[in-house]
């Protein structure tokens, strides 16, 4: 099996929202994507940031933006993020009746398309849809808040996606509780894109923390 380089995506949810341009610059040379958690106080209880912040961030950094929409009605809102220049737009399977139609619209609007699977959602109904997506985000917590504890049993979903992926280039992304202690098991299960908020922005040197995570993921996958 061809070796897939791990992607590291710091979540700005754990960064200082008043200094986002600086926080992006602090990790720019060490990471692949910036993970942007959009929460609407409906799909999840938490409320974070939305389109205007993504538009500003897009102008402030060259790091590709990986937008994770934890919102109701992504059919209405997701395309705006693609048009704002997001590299990848991931919406939740639980929030739409027609994920394939939305993925096609996202790709037509110029972004990659991602599908997120929350803690309590089975992966099996979505395995046939992999050709329609560029990223499949398996939550390793219940979506909604940073700083939660990693749930290793959810890696069974990562294994299922990996088995179903075949030759497809879809990335398997994990999000929630990823740190130096948990990234290896996620990589061994087959994840190849890693979101980390607390473990990167909570560290004294976020770039060094990101590099260390990458090394651990690489070593575990090989
Ligand atoms: C939570 C978000 C995550 C969050 C991860 O719903 O989707 O991206 O920022 O934070 P940590 O890495 O602290 O678990
Ligand atoms: Zn996220």
TrEMBL record:
Residues where a divalent metal cation binds: 35, 37, 68, 175
EC number(s) reported in the record: 5.1.3.1
UniProt catalytic activity: D-ribulose 5-phosphate = D-xylulose 5-phosphate
An annotated GO cellular component: cytoplasm
Biological process terms in GO annotation: pentose catabolic process; pentose-phosphate shunt
A Pfam match: Ribul_P_3_epim
Active site: 37 (proton acceptor), 175 (proton donor)
Pathway, per record: Carbohydrate degradation
SUPFAM superfamilies: Ribulose-phoshate binding barrel (SSF51366)
Domain of life the protein comes from: Bacteria
Record keywords: Carbohydrate metabolism, Cobalt, Isomerase, Manganese, Metal-binding, Zinc
Keyword Nucleus: no
Required cofactor names: a divalent metal cation; Fe(2+); Zn(2+); Co(2+)
Cofactor note: Binds 1 divalent metal cation per subunit.
Keyword Manganese: yes
InterPro entries attached to this UniProt entry: Aldolase_TIM (IPR013785), Ribul_P_3_epim (IPR026019), Ribul_P_3_epim-like (IPR000056), RibuloseP-bd_barrel (IPR011060)
NCBIfam families: PRK05581.1-4, rpe
Record function comment: Catalyzes the reversible epimerization of D-ribulose 5-phosphate to D-xylulose 5-phosphate.
Name assigned to this protein: Ribulose-phosphate 3-epimerase
Originating species: Actinocatenispora sera
């Amino acid at each position: 099996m061809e070796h897939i380089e791990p992607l590291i995506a710091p979540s700005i949810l754990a960064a200082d929202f008043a200094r986002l341009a600086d926080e992006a610059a602090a990790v720019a040379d060490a990471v692949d994507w910036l993970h942007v958690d959009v929460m609407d106080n409906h799909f999840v209880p938490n409320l974070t940031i939305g389109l205007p912040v993504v538009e500003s961030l897009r102008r402030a950094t060259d790091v590709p933006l990986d937008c994770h929409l934890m919102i109701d009605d992504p059919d209405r809102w997701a395309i705006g993020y693609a048009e704002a220049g997001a590299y990848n737009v991931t919406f939740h399977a639980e929030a739409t009746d027609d994920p394939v139609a939305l993925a096609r619209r996202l790709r037509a609007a110029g972004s990659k398309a991602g599908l997120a699977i929350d803690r309590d959602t089975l992966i099996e109904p979505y395995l046939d849809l992999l050709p329609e997506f560029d990223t499949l985000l398996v939550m390793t917590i219940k979506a909604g808040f940073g700083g939660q504890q990693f749930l290793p049993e959810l890696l069974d979903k990562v294994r299922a996606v990996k088995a179903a992926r075949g030759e497809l280039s879809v990335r398997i992304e994990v999000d929630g509780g990823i740190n130096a202690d948990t990234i290896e098991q996620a990589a061994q299960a087959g994840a190849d894109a890693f979101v980390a908020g607390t473990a990167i922005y909570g560290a004294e040197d976020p770039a060094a923390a990101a590099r260390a995570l990458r090394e651990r993921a690489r070593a575990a996958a090989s």
